[in-house]
Design a protein that fits this description.
The structure is a single chain. The chain is α/β, with parallel strands linked by helices and about 250 residues long. The chain folds into three domains: about 120 residues, no CATH class; about 80 residues, no CATH class; about 45 residues, no CATH class. About 45% of the residues lie in helices and about 15% in strands. It contains eight helices and eight strands. It has a five-stranded mixed sheet, with helices on one face. Strands 2-1-3 form a three-stranded parallel sheet. Strand 7 and strand 8 form a beta hairpin. Helix 1 crosses helix 2 and helix 3 packs across helix 5. The radius of gyration is 22 Å and the shape is globular.
Length: about 250
């Protein structure tokens, strides 16, 4: 067996798939540099990310399955679940070996897994679209910190660009230490610089009136709740506690 080690990017993963097929290997393990553990019984193969190779693989896949099925593969990749690369590899091998598209072949465990993980990732995507709370900085930047279970920032960029097209905004994933920034023209990925002493992101100061806005929002949230109809169990189903620390109305 060979262990194909890539940099953790989508292009890097597709480059790894290219290398696996080029070497005509079947018994492989694909993993990221961060997750790689040496194995005396397996040969490590360091994959160099190659955009041309990645494009060739993606083009080949797109010719065999539908666009929604390709998006499912990408969503599964963004889940960052341990071993998801090997599930995707098995799925992609089916794509190239079967005469028909395997996207509906749910009897296959890897096809079923892709469908299940895709639903999990998109559930998190929809929650992020609902739970993002912006704070306005002194230079009119709308900033929000999030910590999603999955790497969904690439999936929510289109929604926020369309909804907040007339203002600059930055949504930052604290767990993965990167964000998406909209400058009124395009959305791009950014990484905040950190102070050498405090370790805190060097963010602009928030507007003086931001505290007032937050207080008003908390007050509104408090008064629209009808105590007699309170249902904590249902509320937790829709707004799990892990999101509360980044929700203005839940902050103490």
């Amino acid at each position: 067996m060979s262990i194909f080690i890539y940099d953790g990017s989508w292009a890097g993963f597709l480059s790894a798939i290219f290398e696996v097929f080029e070497r005509r290997q079947r018994a492989v393990n694909i993993t990221t540099i961060a997750r790689y553990l040496p194995d005396v019984f397996a040969e490590p193969v360091r994959v160099i990310t190659d955009e041309a190779k990645a494009t060739r693989v993606l083009t080949g896949i797109s010719k065999k399955i539908s666009a929604p099925a390709v998006r499912k593969l990408y969503a599964c990749f963004l889940s960052e679940l341990p071993g998801i690369e090997n599930t995707l590899y098995a799925y992609i091998r089916l794509v190239f070996e079967m005469a028909e598209s395997p996207e509906k072949a749910f009897a296959d465990p890897d096809v079923l897994r892709v469908s299940q993980v895709d639903k999990m990732v998109h559930r998190e995507k929809h929650r992020m679209e609902a739970f993002v709370r912006f704070q306005v900085t002194s230079d009119d930047l709308y900033y929000s910190a999030v910590e999603p279970d999955f790497n969904v920032l690439p999936l929510i960029a289109k929604h926020f660009r369309r909804r907040y097209a007339d203002q600059r905004w930055l949504i930052y994933d604290l767990r993965r230490d990167y964000g998406i920034y909209y400058d009124l023209e395009k959305v791009e990925e950014v990484v905040l610089s950190f102070g050498a002493q405090s370790g805190d992101p060097e963010l602009p100061m928030f507007r003086e009136e931001e505290a007032l806005y937050q207080a008003l929002w908390k007050d509104y949230f408090k008064h629209v709740n009808i105590k007699e109809r309170k249902n904590d169990k249902l509320h937790l189903q829709h707004v799990p506690k892990r999101y509360w620390k980044n929700l203005t109305e839940k902050m103490i």
